[in-house]
Amino acid sequence: MSTPIKPRTPPGVMELLPRDQIAFQRMLDTIRGTFEQFGFLPVETPVMELSEVLLTKSGGETERQVYFVQSTGALEKAEAGRPELALRFDLTVPLARYVAEHEHDLAFPFRRYQMQRVYRGERAQRGRFREFYQCDIDVIGKDTLSPRFDAEIPAVIAAVFERLAIGDFTIQFNHRKLLRGYFEGLGIDGDHQLAVLRELDKLDKRGEAAVRATLAGEGFGLGDSAIDALMAFSQVRSRGHADALAKLDALGAGTPLFEEGRAELRAVLAQLQALGVPESRYALNLSIARGLDYYTGIVYETTLDAHPQIGSICSGGRYDNLASHYTKSKLPGVGISIGLTRLFFQLQDAGLVSTADSSVDVLVALMDDALLPDALAVSQRLRAAGLNVETQLEPRKLAKQLQYADRAGIRFVAIRGEDEVARGVVAVKDLRRGEQFEVAEADLASALQVEREQLRALPAHVVQETTR
Amino acid sequence: MSTPIKPRTPPGVMELLPRDQIAFQRMLDTIRGTFEQFGFLPVETPVMELSEVLLTKSGGETERQVYFVQSTGALEKAEAGRPELALRFDLTVPLARYVAEHEHDLAFPFRRYQMQRVYRGERAQRGRFREFYQCDIDVIGKDTLSPRFDAEIPAVIAAVFERLAIGDFTIQFNHRKLLRGYFEGLGIDGDHQLAVLRELDKLDKRGEAAVRATLAGEGFGLGDSAIDALMAFSQVRSRGHADALAKLDALGAGTPLFEEGRAELRAVLAQLQALGVPESRYALNLSIARGLDYYTGIVYETTLDAHPQIGSICSGGRYDNLASHYTKSKLPGVGISIGLTRLFFQLQDAGLVSTADSSVDVLVALMDDALLPDALAVSQRLRAAGLNVETQLEPRKLAKQLQYADRAGIRFVAIRGEDEVARGVVAVKDLRRGEQFEVAEADLASALQVEREQLRALPAHVVQETTR
């Protein structure tokens, strides 16, 4: 036997032990279930796309640190130039390709969700991932898409984060039309709008005085009153529904573009109220600059109230045309993305997500070889009732089996010796409650189901473990 | 605007329209749920592995048509030699790496399932995929693993295919020890056993006479009685539990290795009976040669009774040492794999899987702009009750909305005009049954849930559509 090769993953990927994988999988299931409750349909695309199709813009390649793919055969031929295949770096370009390719088979507005891994050749760094899950929803219209869809997106996101139960959160909005309209009103034309915005985005880092100086200086040359107005605008944050409306009103009259943006935001607020989204979950934040060269209407960011340092955990917005590289059809859309791998990493880091209990509900113990057929039959009856069951296939001391179940996060151990079999009962050890009870074999499945349901109402018994 | 690039996927991948994706996702969910019912724990590994770790055997590379991965940066450097990263070509090598890497954090026997895509640079050909899902279960022991686990695997597989409801199936076994022991008994030594087996494997293709001639000829030189025995052995197929035991008995006495294999098979049969697996679902098939250079004990293949031409839809077996390349620990295991992408393709091809109904249960219609808040509130109440709901956000003619729901495979349309709102009711169109009924708004969610449950007992209304 040769010297073993050190088993290890490449840097920049997240690999989890089973109980953390169960916790991660439950988050994925919650997100998927919520997306489906809002009528979004599943799409999966291949991890590999044709480079020609994926990389429609020259120059973006290096920026996005694309991974190229070559089979053994292609490598041997050592063809010059860009390899034919590349790994997707997000789910938006594949969506554009998918919608353009299948345009005639899809019904519009097309609500789709996609939850897959994407790949970026990021520099190796703690908390930066080269492979990570994105969980995206988008609604794509044909020719037009009502601004009403802008309100559905934050309603989905609010439902997702309520159910993930990772603490209070706020979905914050800004609006490109409001912003551009406001800039117009101050005499800042289209070419300068992005530059001004970039300066405003540095407020936190550089401080107000420095930003003011830049805006007043060469290249911008803005007057004091315009700068005051910009500062005031970008500091607008609302608290609660009425305050959001009041803050919008307080901005005063503006250009037609500004008024269009304001009307859309008011409509979004009204819809969120009709949808019953708690008003603490959404707010205006007119400083949000995210992707303003790409988005054309509302933009969203979501933050955890108690953990602002994590930054936005779910972002997106409205865009005018999804797939101009692939089709002449105009396909406006609105969407949002959760970077789940990064979020999971940060939640673990902040102690907000715990190692899950096992997906196994019951360990059916075995102390006596002769009772194996009985243990197998009991296990199958529990499975038929919908429980997840592991059977101890080789006899061991009961103490060892209980210890194993406890460490593995399995709550129940079903114990049946000669005596229990003779009496038609099962002894059940409940490791969560530290209790033991006896139940007729025929009632075992329903008893465990009742216990399981009851427990869901209780606060979780948190088992802390190291992940890697 | 430049000329659009033709949106298309690379050859050899499967991409589905939403309703086929729903059907596929339901299969994934059924498989996962069943794996979990038998106590298997989830593992996901990165799609990229270090080439050095993935490709431990030289020469296997070309055979397996590995895809290598390079970031833009690595390509520019144009380093000589094999790229650092490669895509996994199965889930077994990543499992070996995972178990070896996390050995001290795992409890053995370790039952794991993994359902992810794998990559092979196959020649482009109908029904051959370069990216495909594998759904694997394995049980890995430390130092030893009881043969009892050999019986649990087919019990899981039987449960999976019962629930997938794609027709009658048979899980067929052979056993490497039985086979090698039988060969030994005929005086065929270890070196020749594989060669003889390869000839026997050609029986279907070449016919009995040709194979007999080869075995009697140069290089083999077997006598008539040995050849007769081989032919008889490889034609053993059982029907039913008692017949399987009888066929094993009828093989007569053999070498110690043979008897070991026979005892293990008898134990597997006894356990399957104790587990309540229907006897029509399993059979001996002593011709199975699959992977006999890798497997060391029981081997499994699964076929659809009505579609033998599809070949094995789920195969696996017992192996002595999973991870000898990565650790000095001995890690014996037993496992099986479902190639789900290929299976789904073949089921579609054979008309055994249909386009699913939508994942959306209800479309909440909208005819009048003023009723939007009501439609949103109704939608949210239905969601709170666990239903998947799409809201019509812009008013359209009712006929159009019904037509849309019908095409999209959405069963219920909830209709509320001024009149219904005034009376506190909702009109519900059931597109599956072609009926309409009226229900109090407060009872809508429970009424729809009852209808949905009832329908699950009925044969599915099959909607046929073209996939691509």
UniProtKB/TrEMBL annotation, chains A, B:
Q: How does it assemble?
A: Homodimer.
Q: Which species does the entry assign this protein to?
A: Lysobacter helvus
The positions making up the signal sequence are: none
Gene giving rise to this polypeptide: hisS
Name it. Histidine--tRNA ligase
Where is this chain primarily localised? cytoplasm
In this chain the Aminoacyl-transfer RNA synthetases class-II family profile domain maps to 25-373
TM ranges are: none
EC top class named in words: ligase
